[in-house]
Amino acid sequence: MYMKRFLLLLPVILLAGCATGTFTRLTPNIQPRNANNLYPVETAFESSQQSLRWDSIQAFVLVNGQTYPLRPVPLVKNRWEGVVPLPPSANSANYRFKFDYLYNNFGTAPKPSSVLSEIHTLKISDQ
């Protein structure tokens, strides 16, 4: 009896335990101030979650309450890039990456989920 219950819950336990990802920030901590006030950001994302549908990922960078899209880097697996607009007076900005995705679920349609990176700080240098 207990074994049947455990086997029924096993897929749920496995999926819940795998819903993690690892972000690698590829953006320098300090960037020189530029005339267009757009600063590039880039990240690599890895996940051991077997049910993650890689083709469904929508990647964003969150800065000061705003969301900006990231695009996949051509010819490089699991890397995304984008730009962050900052006001000309900004000396730094805190940001984090957010990935929304679908994952396969046993017996039902794919389900949505998301994962957030830790908070990073971009410093703007006047050189």
Description:
The chain is 13% helix and 55% strand. With 127 residues, the chain is mostly beta strands. The strands form 2 sheets. Strands 2, 4, 5, 8, 9 and 10 form a 6-stranded mixed sheet that branches. A 4-stranded antiparallel sheet has the order 1-3-7-6, with no helix packed on it. The model is unreliable at 5-18 (pLDDT under 50).
What string gives the helices and strands in order? HEEEEEEEEEE
CATH superfamily: Immunoglobulins
User: In angstroms, what is the radius of gyration?
Assistant: 18 Å
Amount of helix = 10-25%
Envelope shape: elongated
Mean pLDDT: 88
Low-confidence stretches: 5-18
- What's the assembly state of these chains? single chain
**Structural classification:** mainly beta
Strand percent estimate: over 45%
- Please tell me the CATH architecture by its name: Sandwich
Terminal CA distance reads 69 Å
Largest sheet: 6 strands, mixed
Q: Give me the number of helical elements.
A: 1
Which CATH class applies here? Mainly Beta
Indicate the topology.
Layout: H1 2-18, E1 22-25, E2 30-32, E3 38-46, E4 52-63, E5 66-69, E6 71-72, E7 79-85, E8 92-105, E9 108-116, E10 120-125
Parallel strand pairs: 2-10
Antiparallel strand pairs: 1-3, 3-7, 4-5, 4-8, 6-7, 8-9, 8-10
